[in-house]
Inverse folding.
């Protein structure tokens, strides 16, 4: 695998493709995802849309290598994704993070350099530069010594994005990045995701606010355990297909998103 | 005042006890930061109780030696820790409940067994510690365990912290989280065993939680949490040995009481997270 600079995939002259083939994931109770297939590439911003329990988080975790795959394959740049890849960054839901953990903004961003620095090696000049660069890109330099608990929701989201940038990831997997943010923060985050996409990254985000999909995303994956539809927003984000996706709760007893 | 310090130090058993208290307190204090950040105090507490039946069985099988007690304790903690995992996976019970059932049952068996083995004198030591009865050999054992535990924990500091902060993110960055979790548990068990001599298995949990919990109320820095915890653990334990000597108190409980007092002070007076600060903030 070449180590092409991540912020300019276009320079490589070809597109980096993420393709998922017949993916199936099982939980103890049964099937969480069944026969998911789609392919997308760098420079695209993809929304995962579906009711609660449709498997949005599960799909993101499967691509991140956090869940065992029961069937099918995931390829990134033509190579099957093993357990984890430095080029794929996963950003958990904000509610799932322990914000009281005694760590600074800088500390979280530095974690992104772990794949390069390993267990013991002190951080090199290159590592330090990557951390600085990532914090600058996310406008966090002034906040770098702040405790993560003392940040607003939008800032917290940016800290995790900066960690992914420090990691030099091509693929960003975000689980409900907009949930719990106020309106200005949502607008700012949308702009950031657009910028990251324009730089040549592939952004996949679980998303539930149907009103904003057209403004943010290029492609949409309608999900309901199975792939209802996948394609450009203009083709797939239609009334018919949405009704099909949300027709009735995929998981009876759970409320609809 | 100086006499208060120097007079007890003329006795070799006091010197040994203070050295051991410093070492044990330091190691436990450092490890306590992991327990606090992992929020697993009760689990560790259950394991500390599981040490006693292990000692009992080891004494029954191999007789009373330094190493038989040590190995028995180690084996029992592992058996009960892994056993609870197996029970929770093989039934609908959660791991905490399984752990509670296994360790109380084992502890009861241990007490009954030990009472019948003619080691009544030692039961008290294993339950509440006897740091004054330390021999030179014990001090060396403590020293090597402390070195090993601190060595492993500091060497793996970076991946361990990442695992504790966010398991999933750590996993996507290539941290072997499962192996590290087992390793951390193993090190904590060894640290518990090392503290048996000082505080016994009933009180070991206090030494393995309170130091970092106290510092946690005072600082937001991870480094301060670890090194502050070690410092507090070491100094409080050593001071408790002296206090115990002067006031004729049992050293094990005194160590835990001194730490408890330090925690209470931090809880009330911490400039950042203390009760007074909160009251002032609410009153405004």
């Amino acid at each position: 695998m070449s180590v092409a600079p991540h912020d300019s995939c276009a320079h490589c002259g070809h597109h980096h493709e993420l393709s998922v083939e017949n993916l199936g994931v099982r939980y103890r109770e049964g099937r969480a995802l069944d026969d998911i297939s789609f392919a997308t590439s760098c420079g695209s911003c993809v929304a995962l849309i579906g009711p609660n329990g449709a498997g949005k988080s599960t799909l993101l975790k499967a691509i991140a290598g956090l869940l065992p795959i029961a069937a099918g394959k995931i390829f990134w740049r033509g190579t099957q994704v093993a357990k984890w890849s430095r080029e794929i960054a996963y950003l958990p839901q904000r509610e799932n993070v322990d914000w009281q953990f005694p760590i600074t903004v800088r500390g979280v961003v530095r974690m992104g350099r772990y794949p390069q620095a390993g267990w013991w090696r002190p951080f090199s000049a290159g590592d330090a530069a990557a951390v600085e660069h990532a914090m600058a890109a996310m406008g966090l330099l002034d906040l770098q010594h702040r405790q993560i608990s003392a940040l607003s929701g939008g800032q917290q989201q940016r800290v995790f994005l900066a960690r992914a940038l420090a990691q030099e990831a091509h693929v960003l997997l975000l689980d409900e990045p907009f949930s719990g943010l106020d309106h200005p923060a949502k607008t700012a985050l949308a702009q950031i995701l657009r910028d990251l996409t324009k730089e040549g990254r592939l952004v996949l985000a679980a998303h539930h606010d149907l009103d904003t999909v057209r403004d943010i995303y290029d492609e949409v994956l309608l999900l309901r355990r199975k792939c209802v539809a996948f394609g450009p927003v203009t083709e797939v984000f239609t009334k018919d297909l949405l009704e099909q996706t949300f027709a009735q709760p995929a998981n009876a007893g759970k409320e609809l998103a | 005042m100086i006499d208060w310090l120097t007079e007890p130090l003329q006795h070799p058993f006091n010197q040994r006890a203070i050295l051991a208290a410093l070492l044990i307190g330091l190691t436990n204090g450092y490890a306590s930061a992991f327990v606090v950040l992992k929020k697993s105090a009760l689990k560790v507490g259950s394991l500390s109780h599981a040490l006693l039946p292990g000692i009992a069985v080891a004494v029954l099988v191999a007789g009373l030696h330094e190493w038989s007690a040590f190995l028995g304790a180690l084996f029992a903690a592992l058996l009960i820790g892994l056993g609870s995992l197996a029970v929770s996976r093989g039934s609908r019970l959660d791991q905490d409940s399984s752990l509670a059932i296994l360790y109380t049952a084992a502890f009861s068996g241990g007490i009954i067994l030990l009472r019948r083995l003619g080691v009544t004198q030692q039961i008290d030591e294993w339950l509440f510690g006897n740091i004054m009865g330390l021999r030179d050999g014990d001090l060396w054992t403590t020293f090597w365990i402390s070195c090993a535990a601190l060595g492993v924990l500091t060497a793996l500091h970076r991946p361990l912290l990442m695992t504790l902060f966010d398991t999933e993110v750590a996993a996507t960055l290539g941290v072997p989280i499962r192996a590290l979790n087992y390793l951390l548990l193993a090190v904590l068990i060894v640290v518990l065993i090392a503290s048996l001599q000082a505080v016994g298995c009933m009180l070991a949990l206090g030494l393995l939680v309170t130091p970092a919990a106290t510092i946690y109320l005072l600082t937001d820095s991870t480094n301060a949490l670890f090194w502050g915890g070690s410092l507090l653990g070491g100094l409080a334990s050593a001071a408790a040995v002296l206090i115990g000597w002067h006031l004729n108190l049992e050293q094990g409980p005194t160590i835990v009481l001194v730490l408890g007092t330090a925690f209470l002070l931090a809880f009330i007076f911490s400039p950042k997270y203390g009760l007074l600060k909160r009251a002032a903030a609410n009153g405004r």
Remarks:
- The interface with chain B takes residues 61, 64-66, 83-84, 86, 88-92, 96-98, 101-104, 107-108, 111-112, 114-115, 117, 119-120, 147, 149, 163, 167 of chain A (CB under 8 Å).
